[in-house]
Amino acid sequence: MKESKSGWPFVLPYGLHFAVFMAFPIAFSFVLLFHRWDVVSPMEFVGFRNIVTLFHDRLFFRALLNTGVFLLIHIPLQIVVALFLAEMLNRRIRFRGFFRAVYFMPVVVSGVVVTMLWSQIFALNNGLLNQLLGALGLPKLPWLTSPTLAMPSIAIMATWKNVGLYIVLFLVGLQSVPRHLYEAADIEGASSWQKFFHITLPMINPTLFMVVILSTIGGFSLFIEPFIMTGGGPMNSTLSAVLYIYKQAFDFYRMGYAATLGFFFALLVMGVVILQRKLVEREIAY
Amino acid sequence: MPTDREKRSSESRGTVKRLAVYGVLLAFTVVFFYPFLWMVVSTLRPEAEIGDPWIVPSAITLQNYILVFQKIPILRAFFNSLFVSASVTASVLVFASMTGYALSRLRFRGRNAIFYVLLFTMMLPFQITLIPQYLLMVKFQWVDTYLALIVPYMVSAFAILLFRQYFQSIPQDVIDAARIDGCSELRILFQIIWPLSVPALVTVGILTFMAVWNEVLWPLIVIRNRDLMTMPQLVALFAVGGQAEGLLGVKLASATLLALPIVVAYAFFQRYFIESMASSGLKG
Predict the structure, then answer these.
(1) Cis bond before residue A234 (omega within 30° of 0)
(2) What local confidence, expressed as pLDDT, does residue B6 receive?
(3) How far apart (Å, rounded) are the C-alpha atoms in residues B228 and B126?
(4) Is the model's pLDDT at A107 over the cut of 70?
(5) In Å, how far from its chain's centre is CA B55?
(6) In the structure, how many helices (H) and strands (E) does chain B have?
(7) DSSP-derived 3-state class of residue A44
(8) Which residues of A touch B47 (CB under 8 A)?
(9) Which domains are delineated in chain A?
(10) From the candidates B17, B24, B32, which should be mutated to test the interface with A, based on the most A CB atoms within 10 A?
(11) Mutation site for B-interface testing, chosen from A36, A38, A102, A112 by largest number of B Cβ within 10 Å
(12) pLDDT (tens digit per residue) in B148-201
């Protein structure tokens, strides 16, 4: 087949867009690594000072720790709840479409709405959760005002918002498990738990893997939730990677340092995702 | 072989189990739906009763909504969001389908290289380009213009890959026949391929529109002029800033107005929303 003359004209818009909004920013981020710039005055070359600062920056590591806390709660909780509800919805039941639609609703609604709503649910006095605890005769919890509880609270809210998507993904995964595997297991007299751990779980491994990766990327992208709910506090306990970049850039106008933070956070995200991929591949091979 | 007695007891156990399943599903329906319901009701009740978890208010007032419309240009923000989301969506549909078509159905030198570039950009975390992209907007003098909200989103790597994959399934005969008739490649794409690719267009359309509609970080960075703010940005700043004067009902009213358009769209096209989002996850 001969070469098409339309090929390049057709990809030209994408090519231009890539050059201006991807290739140039990536190249420019290398330049910014070595400069100090407040946008107004001229750029100033500072050598490796940004990178040295970063490795001595307690808040950078604090943001990493916070993301770790978020993921440690968010990922297992998300998988357990989503898998449990998908398993329920995968039975022969009526109104499956209705239940699925309700569980999915927080996914389509803006994170701004969800965060404003949950600020009230988590409120110390008169918040819905603390009223519920009160009604059960339990003491109030400082959901957003305690440095140890604030990030877990945000992780719970994020799970509530996203779990509907993962329910749908797991449903697709569960429906792709061949029926005859379960039938064979029934003949062998396997229990429900055995079937779950030896058939279902290995078969939906790809979905599981995807949930972990998407949640990890989500954890590193966390921004509007702490921005609205806590501003990163109390005591920087909810300072997220992106919120810290935002603060350095737009509260202090340290563009070079903010770009350096972005660069290293991006490296970390890629590193973690590649590591997760390696681990899963090994498990599948095994 | 199970005896009759065993059969009967396993049947009744089945009924109990079934009821338990519905019980669990209903409980979670409350968990996911009640907060929204409570939010809407709270915006309609007097400020003094705002913390009340009961969902029937003693009196109904529109005072909160009146205050929202008085304090922030939310209607203007709604039209800004609509304009920006619609422009981006239209542009992504056109340009991403062109690239997707070239990558799947046209043969030219460099095609594979472009494909690898696409895969690379999809893997790249956005944190790395965030600040340089903002500085680019400053250089272009696009800060506080619609251009900053629209142009950086006009093509998407994900949409290209989705179109590429979908177009691969279209029979070559269809394209060959059109070429023999002397159709240009542009006409083939928009008059022959597009009508055959409605599911892909719907998926890309919904995902793009929703992503842009809900985006809040980028607008916060490039827009400071209140008249140009998108809806989520305006409401987020309203929630954070002191403008609501600590009145919870007013804040929740602004959140309800922000949720309204997408919830209405979701109510009508629920299945398409869910299927589109599910397919986006499967690609990731």
Answers:
(1) yes
(2) 59
(3) 24
(4) yes
(5) 29
(6) 14, 0
(7) strand
(8) none
(9) 55-110+160-285 (1.10.3720.10)
(10) B32
(11) A112
(12) 999 999 999 999 999 999 999 999 999 999 999 888 989 999 999 999 999 999
